[in-house]
Amino acid sequence: MAFFDFLKRNNLNLEQKEAPRVHMQQTTPYHNRQDSFKSYAKEGYQQNAVVFKCVNEISQAASAINFKVFQGDQELEQHPLLTLLNKPNPIQAGNEYFQSLYAYILLSGNSYAISSTAGGLPSELHLLRPDRVEIIASNTSIPKGYNYTINGQIVKTYEADPFTGQSEVKHFKTWNPLDDYLGMSPLMAASIDVDQHNLIAKHNIALLSNGARPSGAVIFKPTDTSGSPMMMSDIQRKQIKDDLDRRMSGANNAGKPMLLEGDFDWKEMGMSPKDMDFLQNKHMAAKDIALCFGIPSQIIGIPDSQTYSNIQEARLAMYEETIIPLAMRVCNDLNEWLSPSYGDNIKIEYDYDTIPAMVERRKRVYENVTSAVREGILTRNEARERLGLAPIDGGDDVYIAANLFPLGGPAIPPASGDDAKKDAENAYGVKTEIRKDVYTTEVEAIERAGEIGCVGSHSHTENGETIYMPCNTHSAYVEATGEDVKETEDKAESDIDTKPTEAMATNATRGLKLRKEFNRGGTLVGVSRANQLKVRERLSPRTVRRMHSFFSRHESDKRGVGFNRGEEGYPSAGLIAWLLWGGDSGQTWARKKAAQLDKERDKNFELEEFFTNEDIMDIKAKISEAVKKGLAEKVKEHNEKHGDKKGKRVTQGMLEAVFRRGVGAYNTNPSSVRPSVSSADQWAYARVNGFLSAVRTGRFKRSKYDTDLLPKDHPLSSKD
User: Fold this and answer.
1) Which is it for strands 74-76 and 438-439: parallel, antiparallel or unpaired?
2) Residues 616 and 668: beta-carbon distance below 8 Å
């Protein structure tokens, strides 16, 4: 601010200038246009096809890009700001609103937006027409405010903070080298070309109206008796002109021969349209107009420049060089204007990956990266980073093709027979025991059975392969060892990254602070969870599912009084509890992680083909209250998503029957139970999950079972 203080001390005012006038002159002025939004909108957008095409191409493409809202580095699938951007006001959808915003910027260099607030948060967004907004100048580059004028009357004045520039009005603008307040429209740079393009069109229309004939002169050459030339009178001139207009002008008289009597001669004065090369000049003007807007000539339809590949490349260039930079400018202004109202760490981003024209560029990047991995230039994690993917375990090593050898060196023949076996053992070791007491051959399982005090072996099918375990039944193995093998599920779930995000840690820290300050909100369990999130401790699969369950039960708390800023009773106990579990970021994260964990669990606990005999498995096993409660949650969750569809609504009784059969299968045929399953309830829950999947998708992962329990209208139901 030192520069502006200097201006104030010396009573210096910044110079203000009106928008320039453009004068095109030859011997006499032929055109005089005042540069303004109205003239740009009328002579440019309404009367020029090229300007109309450029403005619509850019504004429609930019407004079609989807928004994303983040809290820190965590994307939020649902948020009030996202709702506002998608529906700014009752009469405009998001793409309509932002198309108008971009069009105003392109036509005038300026766009003005205002917001209505409710409860301290923006509730509606509206646009002001640029020609109706007058900026109130100050002694600095920050205006005093904005006057909104209709029919010459100021109907509203919006003041601006002289230090920060904050105002009810948000001014979106382009850069202007000669104005401190107003942006510069691309039409200002293209104004001469727009005039030329319009005048060429008007001239061609005038030629058509005059029979497409260039103008000429009728020459009078009479002489008197002495041979001296004679002059026509004014009356004679008028009669000849009226006669020519009546007989020769107009499209209906085009091409008629001209009959001249007496000493009259016709002298053509103008050039033909071919001589003047109007068409070429018109195309050059169109190219220059498109150039000012940043639109390749292929997009606006200049002849001899359109091929399929050219248009594809041109559209990609238009997005990368024009649309995306303009969208980024608007996105930055929206983050400055709207995001602070919703708290810390909230930001808006455009989802550029959804742009169809960018698919080819992403495809090229993917091909280059995968080629670099194959050639041993990049590691897999380096490649994943460039593709925007999370790193994976073991992805930091560089791999090359096994058949490569130094140029000029001798080729080493592959080993065979005993040599090959020895090389394999040296490289990888002999691993016939997959994991504890799980073997690839029946002999090894029988030998292990003698060591632990049982006899025989039994088999399981895992991922399509047969594995062998000691003892003739699985229950005998559990009785002999007192333990079960749960590695399959643990390993599958351990592959999933359950480390909380920074946004979750921030929300948990805020929740702990608010709980201490206001002495309300959350339980000791919530405090314990917040402390885990605060230090970003890796959570167990069970904890992740508990988080997902918490958010599902307490979603209604967000509608309570005091949950949002500006409301009475803020912060409410519900808000504090919500933050302790990670806030909106935690809700989105827990939903995704729980889905991943369930997918792994379902994959590893696929039900076997022995689930076919309902008479054997329908044992009236006792169901605990905890199981009933868990099944009730599954019924509620399933019906909320799929219950309104024909044949897909389930009941508590259905799932309890499926669960009982699962317990019966575990007890009556333990040899078919996967080694990763440690209890009858666990196996029964897997059966319920498979049943619900069949209800949703209309197919079983393997053989059919419990079809008599399916809803009556389900296509696989065996009910009469």
Assistant:
1) unpaired
2) yes
User: pTM for this structure?
Assistant: 0.49
pLDDT one-digit tens code per residue, 112-171: 999 888 777 888 999 999 999 999 988 888 888 999 999 889 999 999 888 888 888 999
The pLDDT confidence band at residue 103, using thresholds 50, 70 and 90, is very high
One-character DSSP codes across 86-154: HS-BTTB-HHHHHHHHHHHHHHHSEEEEEEEEETTEEEEEEEE-GGGEEEE--SSSS-SEEEEEETTEE
Write out the two tokens for 244: 């020519």
Could you count the other beta carbons within 10 Å of the beta carbon of residue 412? Answer: 7
Length of the chain: 720
Q: What is the dihedral of CA 360, 361, 362, 364, to 10 degrees?
A: 90
- Sheet order of strands, 433-435 included: 433-435, 438-439, 465-470, 457-462
Tokens for 637?
Answer: 């969750």
In this prediction, residue 487 carries a pLDDT of: 39
Question: Are 310 and 301 in contact, with CB atoms under 8 Å apart?
Answer: no
Closest CA to 241 of 220, 260, 218, 222: 218
3-state class percentages of the chain: helix first, strand second, coil last, to nearest 5: 50, 15, 35
Phi/psi region, residue 277 (left: phi>0; alpha: psi -120 to 50; beta: rest), is: left
Q: How far is CA 253 from CA 210, 242, 384, 494, 561, in A?
A: 9, 15, 74, 89, 81
675 contacts 656 by C-beta, under 8 angstroms:
no
Distance of CA 422 to the CA centre of its chain: 54
Could you read off the pLDDT of 325-341 as tens digits, one per residue?
Answer: 999 999 999 998 888 88
Checking 570-578 for CB contacts under 8 A at 24+ apart, the result is 571/514, 571/518, 571/521, 572/521, 573/520, 573/521, 573/522, 574/521, 575/514, 575/521, 576/511, 576/514, 576/515, 576/518, 576/520, 576/521, 576/522, 577/511, 577/521, 577/522, 577/523, 577/526, 578/511, 578/554
**CA pseudo-torsion sign 704, 710, 713, 717:** positive
Locate the domains of the chain by residue range: 1-127+170-207+277-354, 356-403, 417-485, 502-597, 611-709
Please, which residues have CB within 8 angstroms of residue 272's CB and are 6 or more apart in sequence?
214
Which tens digits make up the pLDDT trace of 628-656?
888 888 898 888 888 888 888 888 888 88
- The count of other CB atoms within 10 Å of the CB of residue 351 is 11
Convert the pLDDT of each residue in 568-612 to its tens digit: 888 888 889 989 999 988 898 988 888 887 776 655 444 333 333
3 state SS of 528: helix
User: How many other C-beta atoms lie within 10 A of the C-beta of residue 644?
Assistant: 9
Per-residue pLDDT, averaged over 221-233, amounts to 65
Closest to 530 (Cα-Cα) out of 579, 573, 574, 563 = 579
Q: Note whether 641 and 446 are within 8 A (CB).
A: no
Say how far apart CA 466 and CA 438 lie, in whole Å. 10
- On whether the CB atoms of residues 576 and 527 are closer than 8 A, the answer is no
Dist CA 470 CA 451 (whole Å): 9
Question: DSSP class of residue 263?
Answer: S
Comparing CA positions, the residue from 423, 471, 466 lying closest to residue 450 is: 471
Nearest to 514 by CA among 467, 465, 447, 563: 563
Map residue 236 onto helix, strand or coil.
Answer: helix
393-433 tens-digit pLDDT? 777 777 766 555 554 445 455 555 555 555 544 544 444 56
Q: DSSP letter string over 391-459?
A: --TT-SS----TT---TTSPPPPPP-HHHHHHHHHHHH----EEETTEESSHHHHHHHHHHHT--SEEE
Cα separation, 612 vs 335, whole angstroms? 59
